[in-house]
Amino acid sequence: MFQFAKPEFLYLLALLPAVGIVFLFGRRARKKALQAFGDSKLIAALMPDASKSRPWVKLVVVETALMLAIIALAGPQFGTKLRESKREGIEMVIALDISNSMLAEDIVPSRLENAKRAISKLVDRLQNDKIALIVFAGDAYVQLPMTTDYTAAKMFLSTINPSLISNQGTAIGSAIELAMKSFTPSDENNKAIVIITDGENHEENAVEMAQAADDAGIKVYTIGMGLPKGAPIPVYNNYGQKDYRTDKQGNVVISKLDEVMLSKIASAGGGKSIRANNTKTGLNALFDELKQLDKAEMEAKVYSEYEEQYQYFLGFALLLLFVEFFILFRKNRKLSGINLFKDNLLAK
User: Fold this and answer.
1) Of 15, 61, 107, 136, which one has the fewest beta carbons inside 10 Å?
2) Which of 70, 69, 63, 59 is nearest to 26 (CA)?
3) What topology is assigned to 86-300 in CATH?
4) Torsion of the alpha carbons at 182, 186, 189 and 191, rounded to the nearest 10
């Protein structure tokens, strides 16, 4: 496993474009100074060895060396040894609706993007818990199996979009059934399914599957994304122009939150239904509910030893700076006399 011991140093990478901007301003100021000094052709004749490309080469070398030095400061490390770790926590499966209706913008920037941000914040608050991600529309798929790797969870979360599933719909029942199979086999009552959806166009067996989950000791919670008044579903063409989805009669489709159905699902699953809006996503209420679940001792494999890798980045950075020191702003007279193309023609 790869990690940074001090990731806060990576913010220094913002210096890279700043160095480039300073270089450009310096080149521009130098050009203006030479133009004020005299005729450009005459000045070029007086400086025949001046190179136009070498300053750019020096910039690239310096920028690369600076980047590598910053990475070295951040302390890159590779995990070398795995060990079994016992911790108390819960197992949670988050089932995220990625159907087209989740693109509605009654919750800004959209229902789906707002949901992804809420999940990311929830992951940040987890400590000893395991998490899995399921995406669903007309079908349901496991996006991330049960894990304690929160970094991986956020990485997979960032790749989620409606194009992952072509079959449209809102198969909440299928998502619950798949979620039940995603838990680690255990008799402990420490499992939860969190369904994030607008609830529209659901399957008929959603309530029955939630009841089956509760019978198996798994709590089912729902977070309703959207507003009861609803909103149209945006569609973008190849030129980025926005239109709205229409039905067969040409009328704009208005997607509305089915709060009643989500309440029935949560009630059958022994959990709670929470509604999101533009000011809150129900994250705090959900987290409070999850904290009340019984914690169980779980085994997880974690890296216990990490090997420092900063020396490779630092060494290469110093090597580049050493090379940059010998790159002059003027041409090399000995090398400038070499004409590979001319030599090749003579050889023929």
Assistant:
1) 15
2) 59
3) Rossmann fold (3.40.50)
4) -20
- Residue ranges per structural domain of the chain: 2-75+309-347, 86-300
Q: Which helix (H) or strand (E) holds 335?
A: helix 333-336
CA end-to-end span of the chain: 56
- Sign for the pseudo-dihedral over CA of 47, 51, 56, 57: negative
CB 271 within 8 A of CB 192: yes
Contact 104, 127 (CB under 8 A): no
Cα 24 to Cα 13, 18, 29, 59, 329: the distances in Å are 18, 10, 9, 10, 15
Arithmetic mean of pLDDT, 226-236? 90
> Which of the four pLDDT bands, split at 50, 70 and 90, describes residue 41?
low
Instruction: Give the Cα separation of 164 and 166 in Å (integer).
Output: 7
* The pair of three-digit structure tokens given for residue 157, joined into one six-digit string: 């979360």
Distance, in Å, from the CA atom of 127 to the CA atom of 295, rounded to the nearest integer, reads 12
DSSP state of 104: -
128-151 exposure pattern, b = at least 16 Cβ within 10 A, e = fewer: ebbbbbbbbbeebebbbebebebe
Give yes or no for a contact between 136 and 171, defined as CB atoms under 8 angstroms apart: yes
Does residue 297 carry a pLDDT above 70? no
Measured between alpha carbons, how far is residue 309 from residues 72, 302, 332 in Å? 8, 19, 37
Q: Confirm if 111 and 226 have CB atoms less than 8 A apart.
A: yes
Is residue 113 over pLDDT 90?
A: yes
